[in-house]
Specification:
Blueprint lengths: L1 H14 L13 E6 L4 H18 L15 E6 H6 L3 H4 L5 E3 L7 H9 L5 E3 L19 E5 L1 E2 L10 H5 L3 E2 L2 H13 L4 E5 L27 H10 L6 E5 L8 H9 L6 E3 L7 H7 L5 H14 L4 E8 L6 H14 L3 E6 L17 H24 L5 E9 L7 E4 L5 E4 L10 E9 L3 E7 L1
Helix pairs in contact: 12-13
The structure holds S-adenosyl-L-homocysteine and iron/sulfur cluster (SF4).
């Protein structure tokens, strides 16, 4: 979501007459987009901003990168909303700070700073509808598109609703127009963004226009949006993230089956496998309900890729709770997983509970789950050896430029030798020869 917001800001600044430079050391204006979902994320953003301000003022250590050109330093995003005016206690010489739903104001703030102002603070309210959301730089064949802002779920540990505000679904007509414009500029793959993206249109269904009739008879907003986007010429793949199991309806599964552009991958954060912990977290599903959602997706396509987020060391998480998470991950057969060590966030319900799992134990649980996932990832990928997969070409592989890589519909990284001339953003068929925990290796078949 932050990557997307940054990209919009960049496009807005370019439209306002600014120029993008190749690297940070040449930039006169640097804006740090902050995350506050965990304490460490916020510290990194604030620390980076502090270094930039030191560079601007010509002080600091030699270790620091040479940001000799920097004249204006701004901070945007979730940490600004969390800290409010406190941000200037940590960063007294910051030029401007702007919260997440107000990034459209940035070109104007930059003008004010150029005119000599500093210390400007702009905080959006919880229902604010951002401007500038449709701005795109388009430097790739892939693009993010925000469809749902904010979150009303209020999971016990999570600061997102406090900083990103209330849930708001963008009008379908606006989203369709944005994706159509992207496709016209060569975008082949879009990823629709929302904290609980399958709730699109649930809070404000009026946004689904009557001039977007459903040929397939879909009644739910999100499948209807997928249907409308599927019809866009030139667009080849539609992804979306993140999902909540309550959104895995029969209509969603039907949309996966009916619309080949909709990739068969779902990022479905589970957080814990223990019913007791899930209840405390306020996740509103049980272990059994979660597993039923995964089973439904795999029943329709056994190769359907499911990935997840897990938190280890939630207050009061016992060894038995942790083992329940371990066994759930095995039963769900995740294709990939992100594991996070619990970090108390100010103002959340769980911050009032003692953070009683020791850091070393959180670390151990993290390592155990990651090791399990390596074995599981390898086993799941091994089932794909011999299959031919459609891969959208991304370019030379990062590790070995003699090889190229891309992704299949399940978002799996596929590496192959570029035997024929390849164009980034086009599809090739690759027969899988080798499986690794995180990648597949294969050969192009004509
Ligand atoms: N809206 C998404 C999650 C957004 S936050 C969802 O509910 O699925 C991304 C991930 O950060 C979460 O899935 C969770 O695993 C992790 N996370 C959120 N708050 C956290 C905290 N206080 N400590 C550790 N991890 C956290
Ligand atoms: Fe946070 Fe829960 Fe909302 Fe996800 S659904 S953003 S974890 S409150």
């Amino acid at each position: 979501m932050n990557v997307r917001d940054s990209e919009a800001v960049e496009a807005l600044l370019v439209a306002a007459g600014h120029e993008k430079v190749a690297n940070e050391a040449e930039a006169e204006l640097v804006i740090v987009n902050s995350c506050t979902v965990r304490d460490m994320a916020e510290r990194k953003a604030v620390g980076k901003c502090g270094n930039l301000i030191a560079a601007k003022e010509g002080r600091g250590k030699a270790r620091r990168p040479a940001n000799a050109a920097v004249k204006i330093v701004g901070l945007m995003g979730c940490a600004v909303k969390r800290m409010g005016a406190e941000v200037f206690k940590h960063l007294p010489n910051l030029d401007f700070a702007v919260g997440p739903r107000r990034f459209g104001a940035i070109p104007r703030l930059v003008e004010r700073c150029l005119a000599g102002e500093k210390g400007i603070l702009e905080l959006p309210d919880d229902d604010e509808v951002p401007t500038g959301m449709e701005a795109h730089g388009v430097t790739s064949f892939q693009s993010y598109v925000t469809v749902l802002l904010g979150c009303d779920n209020r999971c016990s540990y999570c600061i997102v609703p406090d900083v990103r505000g209330h849930e708001y679904s963008r009008p379908a007509r606006e989203v369709v127009a944005e994706v159509r414009a992207l496709a016209a500029r060569g975008v082949k793959e879009v990823c629709l963004l929302g904290q609980s993206v399958l709730r699109y249109g649930v809070r404000n269904p009026a946004w689904l226009p009557d001039d977007l009739p459903s040929l397939g008879g879909y009644t739910e907003a999100f499948p209807r949006l997928l249907e409308a986007l599927s019809a866009i010429e030139g667009l080849e793949r539609i992804r979306f993230t993140s999902a909540h199991p309550k959104g895995c309806t029969d209509e969603l599964v039907r949309a996966y089956a009916e619309f080949p552009k909709v990739c068969r991958h779902l990022h479905l954060p589970v957080q814990s496998g223990s019913d007791r912990v899930l209840k405390e977290m306020g996740r509103r599903y049980t272990r059994a309900e979660y597993l039923a959602a995964v089973a439904k997706l795999r029943a329709f396509d056994p190769e359907f890729a499911v990935t997840t987020d897990v938190i280890v060391g939630y207050p009061g998480e016992t060894e038995a709770d942790f083992e329940a998470t371990r066994s759930l991950m095995e039963e769900a057969g995740f294709d990939n997983a992100f594991v996070f060590k619990y970090s108390p966030r100010p103002g959340t319900r769980s911050a009032a509970l003692p953070d009683d799992v020791p850091t070393a134990e959180k670390e151990r649980r993290d390592q155990v789950l990651l090791a399990d996932q390596q074995v599981r990832g390898q086993a799941r990928n091994a089932r794909l050896v011999g299959t031919v997969r459609e891969v959208l070409v991304e370019g030379p592989s990062l590790r070995n430029a003699a090889r190229w890589s891309g992704r299949d519909g399940g978002n799996r990284i596929v590496v192959f030798e570029p035997k024929v001339p390849l164009v980034v953003g086009t599809s090739v068929m690759v027969r899988i020869a080798e499986a690794h925990p995180q990648i597949l290796i294969g050969e192009i078949v004509v």
